[in-house]
Amino acid sequence: MTVEKKDLGKVAVLYGGVSAEREVSIKSGTMVHAALMAQGIDAHLFDTQDKSVFDLKTEGFDRAFIALHGRFGEDGTLQGALELLGIPYTGSGVLASALAMNKVRTKQVWLQSGLATPLYRVLPRGADVDAVTDEIVAELGLPMFVKPPHEGSSLGAGKVNSANELKAACELAWRYDTHALIEQCIEGRELTCAVLGSGVDTLSLPIVEIKAPSGDYNFHNKYNGNDTVYDCPAQVSPELTIEIQRMISDAYRALGCSGWGRGDVLLRTSDNKPYLLEMNTSPGMTDHSLVPMAARTFGISYEELVVRILCDARLHVQRPVKD
């Protein structure tokens, strides 16, 4: 149950961490902390690289705002620890976090739910790429996109324009993960939509269209460059806007997500058909991030957004009821 702002107590902003997205998480957490402090909330930065999560209990924290990205923060491991500690936290629970962090399992759930997502293959680290390149090209076509299935922020990801580039792209992905996810490349517009809340009460924020230089929304263009253009709300028809928002909400609920999240889609140029790419359960909250951008367009300030997310912090695992 959502709590009131006055009842939030001592809040830990979990940030930093040990994933490859540490740099982004530090930016997110710093901004979240400043916003909470500006709202009069007793918020404290807590770097999970430097401190044990068990210190949250001994230091008397009442709840946690998760501003960690990637593994050991967004993948269900931290959520499980917080459940054991009995400390309510923002975002999705253990299972939904783990599913959404695994792009392969995410796609399997979506396909089972009748939701469109690009065709794909998965190769384990060390696989003989040359032996299967022709088969994969025949199945997925060119170009293709290769990424680590447990990573975010476009780390280890790249576009493959010719068959002889596939091996190098897989080797790059394997630097970050035990497997390489190879996806059919949908040529079209890159869109994203944030969702707030849970179950039937979810709220879809305005859609954002991302126009990166040369169509490459890489780490630099996400966080450090100023050449990427963002259209919010995206210039799509009202009917298509509703369809995409409904699709992302369905994808969010299919994974069991709650609290907040952001779904990414590609809108195919040839027929305006949307394809789901991934679901982020702890999206970026930096000055370049997309959820705050969409919230502002909707009329929700950054400070209001972080408080709203924090007020929805909860435990997801039901404890036995004592007689």
TrEMBL record:
<keyword id="KW-0961">Cell wall biogenesis/degradation</keyword>
<comment type="pathway">
    <text>Cell wall biogenesis; peptidoglycan biosynthesis.</text>
</comment>
<dbReference type="InterPro" id="IPR005905">
    <property type="entry name" value="D_ala_D_ala"/>
</dbReference>
<feature type="active site">
    <location>
        <position position="153"/>
    </location>
</feature>
<feature type="active site">
    <location>
        <position position="21"/>
    </location>
</feature>
<dbReference type="GO" id="GO:0005524">
    <property type="term" value="F:ATP binding"/>
</dbReference>
<keyword id="KW-0573">Peptidoglycan synthesis</keyword>
<dbReference type="GO" id="GO:0071555">
    <property type="term" value="P:cell wall organization"/>
</dbReference>
<feature type="binding site">
    <location>
        <position position="278"/>
    </location>
    <ligand>
        <name>Mg(2+) 1</name>
    </ligand>
</feature>
<dbReference type="GO" id="GO:0046872">
    <property type="term" value="F:metal ion binding"/>
</dbReference>
<dbReference type="GO" id="GO:0008360">
    <property type="term" value="P:regulation of cell shape"/>
</dbReference>
<feature type="active site">
    <location>
        <position position="289"/>
    </location>
</feature>
<comment type="similarity">
    <text>Belongs to the D-alanine--D-alanine ligase family.</text>
</comment>
<keyword id="KW-0460">Magnesium</keyword>
<feature type="binding site">
    <location>
        <position position="264"/>
    </location>
    <ligand>
        <name>Mg(2+) 1</name>
    </ligand>
</feature>
<feature type="binding site">
    <location>
        <position position="278"/>
    </location>
    <ligand>
        <name>Mg(2+) 2</name>
    </ligand>
</feature>
<keyword id="KW-0436">Ligase</keyword>
<dbReference type="Pfam" id="PF07478">
    <property type="entry name" value="Dala_Dala_lig_C"/>
</dbReference>
<dbReference type="InterPro" id="IPR000291">
    <property type="entry name" value="D-Ala_lig_Van_CS"/>
</dbReference>
<dbReference type="InterPro" id="IPR011761">
    <property type="entry name" value="ATP-grasp"/>
</dbReference>
<dbReference type="GO" id="GO:0009252">
    <property type="term" value="P:peptidoglycan biosynthetic process"/>
</dbReference>
<dbReference type="Pfam" id="PF01820">
    <property type="entry name" value="Dala_Dala_lig_N"/>
</dbReference>
<keyword id="KW-0464">Manganese</keyword>
<dbReference type="GO" id="GO:0008716">
    <property type="term" value="F:D-alanine-D-alanine ligase activity"/>
</dbReference>
<keyword id="KW-0547">Nucleotide-binding</keyword>
<dbReference type="InterPro" id="IPR013815">
    <property type="entry name" value="ATP_grasp_subdomain_1"/>
</dbReference>
<keyword id="KW-0479">Metal-binding</keyword>
<feature type="binding site">
    <location>
        <position position="280"/>
    </location>
    <ligand>
        <name>Mg(2+) 2</name>
    </ligand>
</feature>
<keyword id="KW-0963">Cytoplasm</keyword>
<dbReference type="InterPro" id="IPR016185">
    <property type="entry name" value="PreATP-grasp_dom_sf"/>
</dbReference>
<comment type="function">
    <text>Cell wall formation.</text>
</comment>
<protein>
    <recommendedName>
        <fullName>D-alanine--D-alanine ligase</fullName>
        <ecNumber>6.3.2.4</ecNumber>
    </recommendedName>
</protein>
<keyword id="KW-0067">ATP-binding</keyword>
<dbReference type="GO" id="GO:0005829">
    <property type="term" value="C:cytosol"/>
</dbReference>
<dbReference type="InterPro" id="IPR011127">
    <property type="entry name" value="Dala_Dala_lig_N"/>
</dbReference>
<keyword id="KW-0133">Cell shape</keyword>
<dbReference type="InterPro" id="IPR011095">
    <property type="entry name" value="Dala_Dala_lig_C"/>
</dbReference>
<feature type="domain" description="ATP-grasp">
    <location>
        <begin position="107"/>
        <end position="311"/>
    </location>
</feature>
